[in-house]
Specification:
InterPro entries: Homeodomain-like_sf, HTH-type_TetR-like_transc_reg, HTH_TetR, Tet_transcr_reg_TetR-rel_C_sf, TetR_C
CATH class of the largest domain: Mainly Alpha
Shape: elongated
Number of helices: 9
Number of strands: 0
CATH superfamily of the largest domain: Tetracycline Repressor, domain 2
Largest sheet: none
Strand content: under 5%
Distance between the termini: 36 Å
Keywords: DNA-binding, Transcription, Transcription regulation
Protein name: TetR-like C-terminal domain-containing protein
Structural class: mainly alpha
Organism: Actinomadura vinacea
Low-confidence stretches: 1-11
Number of domains: 2
CATH architecture of the largest domain: Orthogonal Bundle
Mean pLDDT: 89
CATH topology of the largest domain: Tetracycline Repressor, domain 2
């Protein structure tokens, strides 16, 4: 994924160490204070690197957010394979639930979503982040089609998005408990719907 000109990283080198420190500092500020408080000078001070380095490499807060999302996509845990659609969807839902209910990560995702609302560059980066995550987990639905668990033509991306949607709803709007039971209900509901053909793509009408 393209970070929007954030620079080349040499694994294990000084460039990688600076990037890691800056992204960690940016994530902390986002989680603690929100996107509106993300100032590059403050990020540099917290990361212990020169302000000039941060401004030269990232330029502005939206580009820094974009690079943070690239890093988060790269660091995300690989999908779980359980051998059944319900098992895979439950694993996905529980991973989302654990992430969003984590004190730091939940606030961070709220800030990232707020940034996407306010800035087009941040929005593009957030969309790319979720495309990567959805595509990785979509393979579990395609495998379910091959096993005959769900009908041919099932839209794998829609299935994965439907699992996490109620969890994000709880995070952002309802304030209902974001617990493992909620994750399991979401996975079960989507698995049942997928088996009935609810996510089969409709053919294009003439």
């Amino acid at each position: 994924m393209d970070a929007g000109g954030a620079g080349t990283v040499r694994p294990g080198g000084r460039t990688a160490a600076v990037r890691a420190a800056v992204l960690r500092a940016a994530g902390d500020i986002l989680a603690e204070q929100g996107f509106g408080a993300l100032d590059l000078a403050d990020v540099a001070a917290r990361a212990g690197v020169g302000k000039t380095t941060v401004y030269r490499r990232w330029g502005n807060a939206p580009r820094l957010v974009a690079d943070l999302l690239v890093d988060m996509a790269q660091q995300s845990l690989p999908r779980t394979e359980t051998g059944s659609l319900l098992g895979d969807l439950r694993a996905n839902a529980r991973l989302v639930q654990r992430t969003l209910s984590d004190p730091r990560q939940g606030r961070l995702f709220k800030a990232l979503i707020a940034a996407a609302v306010c800035d087009e560059q941040a929005a593009d980066a957030l969309h790319r982040f979720y495309r990567v995550r959805v595509e990785e987990w979509a393979s579990c639905v395609r495998q379910a089609v091959e096993r005959g668990e769900v009908p041919e033509g099932t839209d794998s991306h829609e299935v994965v998005r439907a699992v996490s949607a109620p969890l994000y709803y709880r995070l952002l709007t309802s304030g209902d408990p974001l617990d493992e039971a909620a994750a399991d209900r979401a996975a079960h509901a989507v698995a049942v719907a997928a088996r009935t053909g609810a996510y089969v793509s409709e053919p294009d009408l003439p």
